[in-house]
Amino acid sequence: MSSIVPNSKRITTHGVQELKRKGVKISMLTAYDYTMARMVDAAGVDVILVGDSASNVMAGHETTLPITLDQMIYHASSVVRGAERALIIVDLPFGSYQGDSKQALNSAIRIMKESGGHGVKLEGGIEVIDSIKRILTAGIPVMGHLGLTPQSIYKFGTYTVRARKEAEAEKLLEDAKALEAAGCFSLVLEKVPAALAERVAKELTIPVIGIGAGSGVDGQVLVLHDMLGMTHEFSPRFLRRYLNLYDDITKAVSHYIEDVKLLNFPNKDEQY
Ligand code: KIV
Which CATH number is 13-241's, of 3.30.70.20, 3.20.20.60, 3.40.30.10, 2.60.300.12? Predict the structure, then answer.
């Protein structure tokens, strides 16, 4: 894979597209801070998404709507300092691109200049095409996001599976094609039937990365805190937990508290 950035190890948007061409599945995970980004990167993930899910898992908000552009830039710049190899894509937060295409471009430019991320992701189909095209004129790679789009939660009212009905499925396919034609380098499909996701992945040449979209797509993404089991109140069917860190961390912290209370910490080797 040829590199167009100074760090020759860095995965590029073209590298990710090459993976689809070669039939190699793409791995993507979220990260929001330096320490986690270092570990995720060292493990070899292809793409790190600085998702606006930071609003939920880092800030404790119920939805992704409250997180600001400044906060996304803070998270993204921390991730950029921690990751040497992965392609880093940053979510444009709610309210930073829906106004008009100029606002979208300005927000994307701020992310690129102030965080050092390598591209942006935004939610929506044909209704945000002008914004996508405008961002692309500045040479900023764009990843689309269709299906369940959490920034529109108040419009839909639920986080259930999207595009189960024929008309909605056709609209999603149309949107996906429009995003590809506009120049998106990749597309996230969230919580849609596996058969529809597979069809989209087959009909598009750009990589389709799924979350709750089955195995027929070109790659998978999960929210890091969910797959590590740091969140335990959220259990959608698509989520595989690779660890149970909520229990491990609370146990470790309880053990520490007990040691402090019982004068077991520090011992004589742990002092000067
Ligand atoms: O913000 C996020 O974490 C996302 C993923 C769920 C794709 O958009």
Answer: 3.20.20.60
